[in-house]
Write a structure and sequence with these properties.
This protein has 205 residues and is an alpha/beta fold. 30% of the residues lie in helices and 19% in strands. Strand 5 and strand 6 form a beta hairpin. Helix 2 runs antiparallel to helix 4. The longest helix has 15 residues. It is globular and about 45 Å long.
Amino acid sequence: MDLILFTDNMDEYLKEDDVVNYGNENIRRLADTLYQGTSDEVEYIKKAYEYVRDQIAHSADIKEDAITCSASEVLAAGHGICFAKSHLLAALLRYKSIPTGFCYQKLILDDETAPVLIYHGFNGVYVKEFHKWIRLDARGNKEGVNAQFSLEKEQLAFHVRAEKGEEDGFVIYPDPDVKVLEKFRIHKTRTELWNDLPTELGYNS
């Protein structure tokens, strides 16, 4: 598996904006707290990843109908859907000058109740010590979902089933996709969003 950078400009994977808003005081405080006691950058990446995966709930898992999007909103509310959680992880890592981007898979929402193909979002992270990019999925584990931090054998939240039309995405983008963000802007609740999840990416347009 070869990961592909959308741009070779590493500064693009470190920038701050309204979504990956790591200038927020609460994000900086959390990042500094997680950073304390770590022996190296790899340990910090793992701690930040596991914090977002385990301590920030997936909104659907806790039946929360409020929508969070920006990193600061996700942290303040304590929950978010996959895309939103990837925004928070990116903020925690970029604040510590760790290049982080966004990855997408096209998956069936639910085989039984919603057999439609929609996009799922997670992160690509550059590990300087090993000169390599890895993909990390902080969606949040539950029965049937067991994503883990690994430098060698990737373990994401979902296995892509090509025979069902699902697609893996090996490109690491510097920005959250515009069509994904558009869905957050036009819907007021997660229930609304769940009926109109992204089925295409602006990057692919």
